[in-house]
Amino acid sequence: MFIDQFNRRFSYLRLSVTDVCNFKCSYCLPQGYQRPEQALQFLTLDEIQKLVITFAKAGTSKIRITGGEPTLRRDIEAIIALCAEPLEVKTVAMTTNGYRLAKHVNSWQQAGLSRINISIDSFDERLFNQITGTKRFGKVMDGIEAALSCDLTVKLNTVLMKTYNFVQFDRTLERLRDWPVELRYIELMETLEQRQLFESEHISGQRLKLFLQQRGWTMLPQARDAGPAQVFSHPDYRGKVGLIMPYEHDFCAGCNRLRISAVGKLHLCLFGESGHDLRPYLQQDGIQPLADAISHALRDKQSGHHLLERNPGQTIHLASVGG
Question: Which residues are CB-neighbours of 81 under 8 A, at least 6 positions away?
Answer without folding.
Answer: 111, 112
